[in-house]
Every structure is written in C-alpha cells, then in structure tokens.
Amino acid sequence: MSGASDIDLEDRKKLLRAFPSKLHDDVEQVLNILPWHHTVWSHNGSLQSVFRLVGPGDISVTINNEHLKIPYRLYFNEPNPEDELVLTEVQQCILNCVYLRHANGFTRQQRLEKLLNQTEYFTIPFVFSLLGEYVMEILEVLERHINSQTIPNYLKFISENERYWQSTQGRVSSYWDLFYRNR
C-alpha cells in the first residue's frame, strides 16, 4: 500500500490478525479495496474525521488452534461495489466479516444478511460476536443464520472458546434484561 501512514499499516496488521494465517493472501486482497479515508460517514449521515479506522479493543478467540484477535469496532466507509465484484467468494466472505465489526448497526445487519448461506468456519467468530449485541434487527437475522447447516460450526467454536461463550451468555442476559424484558 503505497503512501500508507504508519497508523494505516498498523490497522492493516490488526485486520490480518483477525483471520487464520492460511487466509492472509485473501485478506490482503480485501484490504486493498477498503477505503482508507479518515473522513467517514457517521451513523447520523454526517461526515466526521476519525484518527483510526480500526478502533481500540479486540475479541480474542481461537479457531482450529490458531489464536485470533478480532477488532471490536471499525469505521471504514463501504467499498466501491464494483471493487467487490472482483473478489472471490472467500474474499467476499472476509469482506462481509470485516464489516460485521462496523460501528454502524445497519452496516452490520446488511453484511450479516450476505453471510446467511455461508458455512465457512472462519466466519463463525465474527457472526458469533453479534450474539452479544442488543440490536434486535441483527438478532433476527442471526436467528436465520443459526441453522442445521451452521450449528456444528457454532458448537465447535464454543468448545474452542468456552470463556468467550460464557461472557457472551452474560452479555445476552444483561442486554435482554435492560432492553427487552418489558416488551
């Protein structure tokens, strides 16, 4: 990435650490189409300047005995749709997983819908992280993703990440009590 700032290079490394090493060439292809502009659209439709496109904090998980660190939040604008068309199916899955960590809930929901028929194991940590969120519309899409095709991957992920599973259960209970108990 020519002309990249040290911060952008560090953010690229963070995104690489979110995926299994066998996918790093594919992740690099995805990173090349991300808009690395630090002026981004906010949730209310206005432009704002951000210092980092990959926010602080991460989610530590293990898949197939490989330790990954998934960024907690991202602030990228959406990539050019034409650029997405040149990506392979696996690369499109990676791109959708990246945007599941976006700060905008609508973006997370739209990208999750694109993963509904995917059973690639590397997608599970990104999708699973949404279980601990409080946005009902995302949870409704998740309900469709968790099915007989994906349950074995979820069970495998839970067995590899028991602590993360327990903390996710706690978040689900807390959010349910806070936002939905009276509905």
Overall description:
With 183 residues, the protein is mostly helical. The protein is built from nine helices and four strands; from the N terminus they run ααββββααααααα. The protein has helices at 6-16, 24-33, 81-85, 89-99, 105-113, 124-129, 136-145, 151-160, 162-180; strands spanning 39-41, 47-49, 58-63, 66-71. A two-stranded antiparallel ribbon has the order 1-2. The chain has a two-stranded antiparallel ribbon with strand order 3-4. Helix 2 crosses helix 4 (89-99). The radius of gyration is 16 Å and the shape is globular. The mean pLDDT is 87.
Give a quick account of the main beta sheet: strands, pairing sense, barrel closure.
Answer: 2 strands, antiparallel
Number of helices: 9
Numbering strands along the chain, what is their spatial order in the largest sheet? Answer: 1-2
List SSEs in N-to-C order: HHEEEEHHHHHHH
- Rounded to the nearest angstrom, the radius of gyration is 16 Å
What's the count of strands? 4
Global structural class = mainly alpha
Shape summary: globular
Arithmetic mean of pLDDT? 87
Low-confidence stretches: none
Helix residue percentage? 40-55%
Approximately how much beta-strand content do the residues carry?
5-15%
Distance between the termini: 49 Å
